[in-house]
DNA sequence: CCTTAACCGAGACGGTACGTCCAGTCTTATA
DNA sequence: TATAAGACTGGACGTACCGTCTCGGTTAAGG
């Protein structure tokens, strides 16, 4: 895999961790806008060039830090319980906790920056936003398949939008908390929304950009 | 009203408009992060000090521009039709159109910045976010009062979060468009969610209550 | 003389005096470089335009202030005593006192500015520097005419340069005071320098710019 | 000597020279007042921060430039000829040439600025004004020691003031040139002034600020 | 008496230099 | 070869003053 014979001084893992930690910490404490490459380097106790060598911009540091965090948390996006509603609620709760505690600032800042940076936008989609969307959608689709849910009145995609949209809306607007109670309320609402027996109107939902693998589940 | 006798040269309305227009335009074309006070001044053909004299930071320029835009649009937050559902859909549609076309970038950037600026957060709440929230909530409350809606299963606040949350989520994530069709779908979903006859037990665990046949509100 | 019929509000003498006083005071207290038109106007309690209306630049305010000061002092450049040496000493003393107490800063600043402003240079020559030069030179020439002095070894112009040059040198370099004692020492030195009987070497002094009326007096 | 191990990128000698050259050149061509840090940086083709990093203000750039110039010229302040008068004239001539050609504007501007900046005043004394004063005074003292001169009527310090004062006076007032001819005339005048046999009435000269090393040796 | 024109204060206007900070790049010595 | 250090060019920051311009209000001479 790594075909280069790896000569010279190897990359310092210490420096790598220090940079990622410093970036997340500074972003959460001072905000995305105030985060600077210089600040990251100084907080990490690392030369500036060392940061630039491995990450072209602060966006990249943050994305790497988020990915690293996810790996370390080894977070389960698939709760594996048989109970669909319980799984939905667990997923939402985990998402809310993580976002509220650690990554909210970074994510919102990155999102704002991504408005005019399609490449960044795509990277966020594929690493942060997309997987969670797909995980929730897959859960709901499982419920539909089991018959406990139905995508009659509203599509599953819109239901997912409701769940995560509420989270984002509250994160940025701060008019209400994002906590376990919200997870519960949303789960309840989704149940109502996707209650079997609702008349299907079967509008084929337009495919999302990253085309989740989830089968659209026949609207029959 | 204006008790100060207005001494000295009066403020130039031309310069004011040029600055606000330039700010919105630049923000929409280049993004919030790339927006600079210098750039605003130069695009507006105005001295830098003139911008700083009236607005301490780019946030303030943008907020003023948004407020000015709202005033100019003389946009109706209260559609005044008797039909509650129609009014909801109209409000959502108008909101989506405005946000998509003109103010999306600015708003997201401002929101990102507000994460560490409580004062800015409050100002956004009171001028941009709050009024729209309250307008939609009032419409829904009217529906409840009329009996066409019911806040049984989910609170009206959560319903509002669903509507605008979806908008924000799609604005920042860009996984799906924010258009009239979305307004329609959300309206339909809200109808389902707030269907009269839903067991009003508020927040506790959703029971297995049977729901009567909801009207499909066919959009076709 | 004043052919315009002088209609409208007449110029405020109060404002004029306030501006000139403020200029001199600020220049002496804060230095020439720190003197600003804005500061002059504010200290004088006068509108900025009122300053600009009558004086194009701070140089002009200062020159006017210096001229005004000279007029008010009604200072005698010609002491009228029969004793030439006494007159020389009196003139130097008066000059030193005035320059040290009030006008030193302004003069040096103006001089520095005049290095690249020939028009200013000429105005300073004709209003401030020149008259004093000529006054001293005339005194010395009178001494020569009376026989108490002789311009044999050194020209009168160089003698004048010695006297005022020392003053300027000490003003800017501050290595020694400019006081009555210096006036006395210089007078003594000039006596030595222009002592009758000194061997003439008769170098025809090149005329100075303002060509004082003083006869070069043949060195015969 | 340099005990710090010299970490990081070393200072660019190229940039240093470019800044000093640009400063002197601009000052001579446009005048001290018009000299700006920005202009220096741009003319030198150097970042603005690079100028500020090493010199806090334009004064410091100029003083450094003057010192650098003196070092490069490796100018002899002590001509080493046995003939005192010749040495005096040589020193004056060199001083006049240097000041007229290169440093006049800068020096006058610095002097004007030093009127309200004691620290700058002191620095100018110790680097520019003082050494020349002491060099000339030492020459004259040597002449006195040899018996070719006498500090009877006027003190050596006043004689030095005459020589350099005349230079300054003409530099700022521009009523006459500062050239070799002036050096010659001043030398002649000093000879007259310090002619042995002049009645020594011995006014105990007040010690000057910089207190030249020595007693002028017995006035034989 | 009553225009009326020039004066006056205040202060906004477009510009420009200030001195600071950070972005990214580079060049050194060291590991 | 990676690293910490730090100097490099470049550019936005927010401030201060420049010189110009418009206001409302004042003040005396001339009709």
UniProtKB/TrEMBL annotation, chains A, B, C, D:
Low complexity bias locations: 199-220
Record has Methyltransferase as a keyword: no
DNA-binding region location: 36-55
Short name of any one Pfam family annotated for the protein: TetR_N
Region (Disordered) location: 194-220
Superkingdom of source: Bacteria
Any one GO molecular function term: DNA-binding transcription factor activity
Record key words, sorted: DNA-binding, Transcription, Transcription regulation
Domain HTH tetR-type, chain residue ranges per copy: 13-73
Record PANTHER family: HTH-TYPE TRANSCRIPTIONAL REGULATOR RUTR (PTHR30055), TETR-FAMILY TRANSCRIPTIONAL REGULATOR (PTHR30055:SF148)
Protein known as: Transcriptional regulator, TetR family
Organism field: Actinacidiphila cocklensis
Upper lineage: Bacteria, Bacillati, Actinomycetota, Actinomycetes, Kitasatosporales
């Amino acid at each position: 895999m790594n075909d280069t014979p790896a000569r010279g001084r190897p990359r310092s893992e210490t420096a790598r961790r220090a940079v990622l930690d410093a970036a997340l910490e500074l972003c959460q404490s001072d905000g995305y806008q105030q985060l600077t490459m210089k600040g990251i380097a100084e907080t990490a106790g690392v030369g500036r060039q060392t940061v630039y060598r491995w990450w072209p911009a602060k966006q990249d540091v943050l994305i790497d830090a988020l990915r690293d965090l996810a790996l370390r948390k080894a977070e389960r996006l698939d709760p594996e319980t048989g109970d669909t509603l319980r799984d939905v609620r667990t997923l939402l709760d985990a998402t809310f906790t993580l976002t509220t505690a650690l990554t909210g600032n970074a994510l919102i800042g990155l999102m704002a920056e991504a408005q005019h940076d399609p490449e960044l936008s795509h990277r966020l989609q594929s690493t942060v936003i997309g997987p969670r969307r797909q995980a929730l959608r897959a859960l709901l689709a499982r419920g539909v398949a089991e018959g406990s849910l139905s995508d009659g009145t509203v599509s599953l995609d819109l239901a997912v939008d409701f769940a995560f949209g509420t989270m984002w809306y509250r994160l940025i607007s701060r008019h209400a908390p994002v906590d376990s109670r919200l997870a519960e309320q949303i789960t309840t609402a989704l149940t109502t929304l996707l209650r079997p027996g609702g008349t299907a109107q079967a509008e084929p939902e337009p495919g999302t950009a990253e085309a989740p693998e989830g089968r659209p589940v026949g609207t029959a």
